[in-house]
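Hello,

Our lab assistant flagged a job as stuck in the queue for most of the afternoon. It eventually completed. Since we weren't sure the result was trustworthy after the delay, we are filing this so someone can double-check. Below is the sequence as submitted and the structure that was eventually returned. Let us know if re-running is recommended.
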Amino acid sequence: MDITYKLEEPFTYSWSLVLIIIIVMIILVFFYVLILIKPFFYKKIVGVVSEAMLPSLKARYIKKLEKLMSLVESGRINNRDAYTKLSVIIREFIKHASGINVLSLSKEEIKKMNMKELSLLMEEYYPPEFAKNINGDINESIKRTIEVIQKWN
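-- returned structure --
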């Protein structure tokens, strides 16, 4: 007795299944690449204000600096703490204005980033902020910081 088998041709039965698998694979690869690339663009996209919002951001940080100046003039804060707060204020402004997180960077790291204005301010803030004998003029430093914020593009 002869038994015959009829075999299907390869992939004649489920091109739709193969197509679905290919589409799912493409979507998974796309999201995987997106997750890998996101950190590189995150610094540039998140936190950056538009040109229309920059004047209000500048005004907000200038008010913070003016408040700091009034605290210094009234004697409610010493120079060392004032320099520390001044450093934090300008770093926060740079972070919100440019999207670059400089809050945790050292003076040397900021210098390497080629941000001339911020680097000059950090050079001015560091000695009075960390030295035993404080020789800085905090009011002049605050005024220079206000000038840098006003000129920021």
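-- support follow-up --
The delay was a queue issue, not a problem with the job. The result is valid. The longest helix spans residues 15-45. Residues 54-151 form one domain.
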